[in-house]
Structure formats: structure tokens, C-alpha cells
Prior knowledge:
Elements: H1 2-27, E1 37-41, H2 42-48, E2 68-72, H3 86-119
Antiparallel strand pairs: 1-2
Amino acid sequence: MWEKIDKLKLGASFHLERTKVIQGNIANADTPNYRPKELLFHRELDKALQLKREDPRHIDPAGPSQPWSIEEYGAIRGYDGNRVDVQEELAKLAESSIMYKALGETLKKEFSKLKLVIQGR
């Protein structure tokens, strides 16, 4: 049960951080030569692929200490070199917000189950 709660917390943290990155992209929509950023979930993908180190010279599949990283992306959109597509960023913001709320509700249900177990019902 705790493993499930930990994964839900990690997912919620990811979407909260992703929301902050997207908000930064939207805030810089008028900044010349700004390249939008995206939060990528590396370590969890590596775990899903079940990579393993068989030789000490191999790169550690766990990757960096934080399971996600920020990377720039995007083609030039405006005359000022800005690459932010506000509509695309707003769509990502809505998606991330919905996922965060859904994970929060799921966590709430898991804690309710845990409460029932503790109370002995």
C-alpha cells in the first residue's frame, strides 16, 4: 500500500513541478529568443524498461537523483526568436492540472482506506 502511495505522491509532485515550468513558459511568451521548457520523467521510464547495470563501466540506469529534468524545445515562432506557442502551453497546463487533481483525489481515497484499516473496520 505504501508503495502505491509513494508512486501517487511522486506523480503529483511531477505534475505540480510541470505546472510551474509551463507557467514560466507562458510568462515568457513575449521574451525575445526565449525557448520553452518541458519537464521530462527519465528515471521512471528507465525503471519501467527495467534497465540494469551488469558492468561497473555502464551508466547508472537510475540517472540523476531527481526523477525528472527540464529541457528546452520548440521551433522559432515569432520575428523576435521566441518559440512559445501560448495555445499549446495552455493545453499542457490544463492537462497537467487535471492529472494533479486526479492524483490528489486518488491519494485521498488511499488515505481513507488506510484510516479504515487503522480503525479496524
